[in-house]
Design goal:
- The chain is an alpha+beta fold.
- The protein has 5 helices and 17 strands.
- The chain folds into 2 domains: 107 residues, 3-Layer(aba) Sandwich (Rossmann fold); 133 residues, Probable inorganic polyphosphate/atp-NAD kinase, domain 2 (Tumour Suppressor Smad4, Sandwich), CATH 2.60.200.30.
- The strands form 3 sheets. Strands 6-5-16-13-8-9 form a 6-stranded antiparallel beta sheet, with no helix packed on it. Strands 12-11-10-7-14-15 form a 6-stranded antiparallel beta sheet, with no helix packed on it.
């Protein structure tokens, strides 16, 4: 099995990179069978975006802080572990953001697309689902749309629901909502299209971020799942991502 190793710049990750390349060699990206990512969740997401055009599965090992999306780090028996690994296919969100200057920015997000206020004033955002206005005005710090894989990240911190990978839904979660006070968000079919209209954009500027791609001063953001861009992650059977997401719902 040909492996391409990549790591973040921390000492811990670089030491792991040196150890693993000495044991298993270093294949080029185009010639490898699997990409092994060493770092934390942010490193994994960054490398998914970087190598997705190679169409190679990714096996991540935690050399970062949280590492929820990664396997534990062990240098021994790596090839056997990857051969016995269970695969999970993730589909990203596609964001199309229009700025006040008319510029259109497109980006993919495997965790979430989030909108956040840029000034001291709360943002005002209108929400339409599949072309139907559902909330004419949400006064808030922001709002996000999370995939099941991303539901345990920023979405959970914003008191959004944890979503099993097989649920085929997205989380629509407000961030510090002020009006309407009792609105706590919604679960949407994965195939839904979501449009955010920024109200009073000159007075209440808003940014939009898809994973790590940020656009400032947006006036409209469209979000839909990109079912044509599936990506495969590999997990040890005893560290199954579906099971860990389920377990998160019962954590104290």
């Amino acid at each position: 099995m040909k492996i391409h190793f990549t790591a973040n710049d921390t000492v811990e990750a670089q030491m792991a990179l040196t150890e693993l390349t000495a044991l298993y060699g270093q294949a080029t990206g185009k010639d490898c069978d699997t990409v092994v990512v060493l770092g934390g969740d942010g490193t994994l997401l960054e490398n998914i975006h970087r190598v997705m055009h190679w169409n190679k599965p990714i096996y991540g090992m935690n050399r970062g802080s949280v590492g929820f999306l990664l396997n534990p780090y062990r240098a021994e028996n790596l090839i056997d572990r990857m051969r016995n690994a269970q695969s999970v296919t993730l589909y990203p969100l596609h964001m199309t953001a229009k700025g006040r200057d008319g510029k259109i920015t497109e980006a993919l997000a495997f965790n979430e697309v989030s909108l956040l206020r840029q000034s001291r004033q709360a943002s005002k955002i209108g929400i339409a689902i599949d072309g139907v206005e559902r909330l004419p005005e949400l006064v808030c710090d922001g709002i996000l749309v999370a995939t099941p894989a991303g539901s345990t990240a920023y979405n959970l911190s914003a008191h959004g629901p944890i979503i099993p990978l097989s649920a085929n839904v997205l989380a629509l979660t407000p961030i510090s909502a002020f009006r309407p006070r009792r609105w706590r968000g919604a679960l949407l079919p994965a195939q839904a299209t979501i449009r955010f209209e920024i109200l009073e954009a000159d007075k209440r500027p808003v940014s939009a971020t898809a994973d790590y791609t940020e656009v400032r001063d947006v006036i409209q953001v469209d979000i839909a799942q990109d079912s044509s861009t599936g990506f495969t992650l590999l997990y040890d059977p005893d560290y199954n991502l579906e099971e860990r997401i389920l377990m998160e719902q019962f954590m104290p």
